[in-house]
Amino acid sequence: MPSFIRRYVAALFFLVLTLALLQWGLPAAGVPAYLLPTPWQVAQSLVARRAELLGHALFTAAAVGLGLTLGALGGLALAITFVLLRLLEDALYPWVLVSQAIPAAALAPLFTIWFGDGLAPRVAMAALFAFFPVLVSAARGLRQVTPEELALMRAWGANRWAILWKLRWPAALPAIFAGLRVAAALAVVGVIVSELAGSGRGLGFVISVATYRLHMDRVFAAVVLAAGLSLSLHAILWYAERRIVFWQRQG
């Protein structure tokens, strides 16, 4: 059995075992449903409220997709700029680090005030969360070339733009995709945080309202959908990497 199939089979077995233990262990321990529902109760909530939850999940997914795209493009653009203009990197990178030290929970209400109670503040929060991992991974990947490779390109008369697109960019793609997978997971977190701070739609809104009413089955149903969204993005990026960075798979 191939190693990656064995790994996924082991993960699936662990998931099934955990769900079975929760299904039988929680009632046996006398844990009330308003504290921690069983997996079956969560599944029932998913089915009973599928139309409502699907609408909220699509709103969250739209915000994640737009925010991830904007954050990734911004991170890639700044990473390329840093590689080409080292002085600009020395001037701006410390401030980029400072921006990541600001608590996201403090920014979410501000984005809602500035951009309104619609899609825009959710997209802004997702872009903010996705920006930094793409920037760091892309900047590191673009520099993963040897002095010998650079000397050879220059000996062939390549300028810095040719070196960027024909040498640095292909070498950086594995690192960029790794950063994108991290950014995708963080973008989902960013949108949920933004929706928790104040929204009338989205999975974060469902979690907020259901928590207030102690409907824990709905809370976990929304959490399951958010996790499914994150895993779906991870799978899409993994497949795209295998198709685009084909030389790495062959190697």
TrEMBL record:
Keywords: Cell membrane, Membrane, Transmembrane, Transmembrane helix, Transport. The chain crosses the membrane at residues 57-85, 92-116, 122-142, 171-193, 219-240. It is a multi-pass membrane protein. GO terms for cellular component: plasma membrane. Residues 53-237 form the ABC transmembrane type-1 domain. SUPFAM superfamilies: MetI-like (SSF161098). It comes from the Bacteria. GO terms for biological process: transmembrane transport. InterPro entries: MetI-like, MetI-like_sf. It is found in: Cell membrane. Its main location: membrane. Belongs to the binding-protein-dependent transport system permease family. This is ABC transporter permease subunit. It comes from Candidatus Viridilinea halotolerans.
